């Protein structure tokens, strides 16, 4: 009964509105259709309800037409009213469909954006994750050398790379060697004030960061009778073993003569923690850089990791930046005992991600083709 009344009421409102509509519809394309619709013609002519004889199909057609007009013709107030004239069930359908449409558009847009983000991060290649165990011959890839070696090639024929590239290995340095070096670094860094985010110790010169300054540990120790307690000879012995293995690996991988490649300076330990980066030259870590130009002595860079990503620190991954859009980058996740080595020119521009938690220890061991830039490490008889 209530429904009947409502229905009746709606139709009456609709008919009233149709009269107004008709005035506006002379130029409307729908007119042709409308003329052909008997039910509709009677409504328009009489302004009366003849719905009883109309079957529901006709009603629906009318409602659709009136809906279409309302949706597509703007600036006509009567059209707005005629939406209200639709039966509640139809209004509900329209509203739900509109909501579904909005939700669909939103999802489509959101998914597209997400895909784009995923695509960006998925195009970053993790060359060595902490879960990988790169045993045996070094794992990596060759890359065309940049033009940075043109001059070197004339000067250092049998050492300058013809094929460049980047590699990792988890089996060249053993755990004992890595542990010894790690403990040494820890001891050294407890001797100085923590400096923002980066502490540095150069094994070649003895330079040790202390706040924003550097002190020279070797000079200080010179006058200390029990200096052997601070830096044991053993650490230099271990370092020499590691250096030899790295030199062998690099020369074999890049096909150069091992007696033409030399250790160069700085040979440095770093401890990076999550605090702000220090205002010293070590700021370089956070920025994309090219070792050959940053240090001026490097032809081949090797890195020995003394801490493991995600276990001991967050962030701090090593990233080769292969293009400016920060996609298609190659990532190395630091892992205790892992080495990476690469040619130091612009073919291997890189950076270190900010460390967000914990402490990251690493040792940079560089090599040069220039005998004049060779460095011989001191012994404890410094
Ligand atoms: O610690 C690292 O992973 C790399 C540091 C670096 O880029 C450098 O020593 O030049
Ligand atoms: Fe670097």
From TrEMBL:
Its cofactor is L-ascorbate. One of its GO terms (molecular function) is L-ascorbic acid binding. Gene3D superfamilies: q2cbj1_9rhob like domain. Residues 39-57 have a biased composition (Polar residues). It comes from the Eukaryota. GO terms for cellular component: membrane. Residues 271-371 form the Fe2OG dioxygenase domain. Residues 20-29 have a biased composition (Basic and acidic residues). Pfam families: 2OG-FeII_Oxy_3. InterPro entries: OGFOD3 (IPR039210), Oxoglu/Fe-dep_dioxygenase_dom (IPR005123), Pro_4_hyd_alph (IPR006620), Pro_4_hyd_alph_FE2OG_OXY (IPR044862). PROSITE patterns: FE2OG_OXY. This is 2-oxoglutarate and iron-dependent oxygenase domain-containing protein 3. It comes from Dermatophagoides farinae (American house dust mite).
